[in-house]
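We emphasize that the prediction below concerns an isolated chain of 295 residues; any contacts that depend on oligomerization or on bound cofactors are therefore not represented. The input was used exactly as deposited, without trimming of termini.
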Amino acid sequence: MKISDYLEVFVPTHIINIDTDPYIENKMIEATIASCHEKLSLEDTQFTICPDARFEDTHPELMEKYFKYLNEMIDRLKVKGVNCVIRKENSKTLRGNWEQFMSECKKPFMFFLEHDWEFLSHLNVKEILLFLEKENTINYIKLPKMDLTKEWYNSMCSRDNWDWICQEVENSSIPLTRLSFFSGNPHFLRVDFCNRFIIPNLAKHTPYEKAKGRSHLEKDLKNTIMMMIDEDRNCGKIKEWGHIWPLSYGPYVGKGCPTCAQAIGKQHLNWGVFMYGVQGQKAVVGHLGDWCAKC
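Result of the prediction step, given as a token string:
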């Protein structure tokens, strides 16, 4: 299997602190791409860098400098065997760039890689891609940024959890945990599913005028999934505090509303969202610094 026949890497980026202390020489993005290429053994797989275009009108000089820096970075990465390109025509938001990338991508799968991550361990990407080729109901696999301990799984079963379903998959050829929601962690995503299901549902349930912000793609996705869950909930208790968590793992299993649990389970099947790993898996990725901070 040649990975580059199956996968393209989407690398969104923007100028950090553009109005206060512009970070033009963004060393994080170079470290992120180099780490990803090495630890995932991506060979000649293409990394497509997509800078937000929203500053081209307001800060054209800074954008010109950022593109110059990115081109110099690409030359350095090419020496290391990394295949990088910069997309010239871009959208003004992360979501817009993501949707544009999906519409243009010719590979069956993409890898989502924001510019501030490091890879902590090697991963068999060929095994994951072969698995995704075979299991067409699994559309998204994110990489964990923390050790998957029993305590971590139990923490997902609280009223503050991000993933309402958090359940290890049995009898899988790769280690997987079921989830309900997308995140901005590095992840694999099926391109065809995104174009025919995710993007149309985003437009329907979370159109741009209702979007959560310029860079909050994952919040728009979560909002869309929650609205689709609500369409299937008929328990009459939607506004009652605390009844909506089905608690699929840990000491409180079965304490949630069964009607809501069915609706959440249905959307999990519709979206096919998973995380790589089961209990005992070490973190695969980590942040290089604070959110959008200089490393």
